[in-house]
């Protein structure tokens, strides 16, 4: 946010001085500019529910509510001692800061203290694609085509941004709600790779 405000101040000063502005196409507001580490303790910003929504190998996901706006979100608490590769974990955060698509889990902000990192994201109440497959046993052609279309849309967007997910499986897709026609979101970019130049990836990721 500071970076964005600084850029806007510079543009405003130049406009006042010259009466002209650079080509509007040169002014780019990136999503990563808006999503920053919040230096406040997470408890001062969010009321975090004690009962977890889910647990994994590296963290616990809980429901949280913003104390000012009342918005409900999900927070993933990751213990630093369980992070084997901090550089890769930081890259996952940077990837989530960059991506902005209806079928990609949205990161709002993140916090850090001496023991944990907290990722605050949109909340998906519909569960994993894996669980819905097990529950339904099979999908109709109409339902399957809609799900597969959303998977392809999320991957096409990631690839257009130079991101290879590398851990595609039903467990890494969440439904936004329990509704039968709920949107699907791709999650977990822990094994993702940023592709700077066109190249073949040969190592096994997931």
Overview of this protein structure:
The protein has helices at residues 2-18, 31-34, 42-45, 86-98, 129-136, 141-160, and strands spanning 46-55, 59-66, 72-79, 107-112, 116-121, 163-164, 173-175, 184-186, 193-194. By secondary structure, the protein is α+β, with helices and mostly antiparallel strands. A 5-stranded antiparallel sheet has the order 1-2-3-5-4. A two-stranded antiparallel ribbon has the order 6-9. Strand 7 (173-175) and strand 8 form a beta hairpin. The two termini are 35 Å apart.
What Rg do the Cα atoms give? 19 Å
Provide the helix percentage.
25-40%
Alpha carbon gap, first and last residue:
35 Å
Oligomeric state: single chain
Average pLDDT number: 85
Secondary-structure element order, as H and E?
HHHEEEHEEHHEEEE
Across the major sheet, the strand order is: 1-2-3-5-4
Number of DSSP strands? Answer: 9
Biggest β-sheet: count, sense, barrel? 5 strands, antiparallel
Proportion of β residues?
A: 15-25%
Poorly predicted regions are: 1-11
List keywords for this structure.
two-stranded antiparallel sheet; 206 residues; 9 strands
How do the helices and strands line up, and which of them pair or pack?
Layout (H helix, E strand, L loop, with lengths): L1 H17 L12 H4 L7 H4 E10 L3 E8 L5 E8 L6 H13 L8 E6 L3 E6 L7 H8 L4 H20 L2 E2 L8 E3 L8 E3 L6 E2 L12
Antiparallel strand pairs: 1-2, 2-3, 3-5, 4-5, 6-9, 7-8
Task: Give a quick summary of the entry.
32% of the residues lie in helices and 23% in strands.
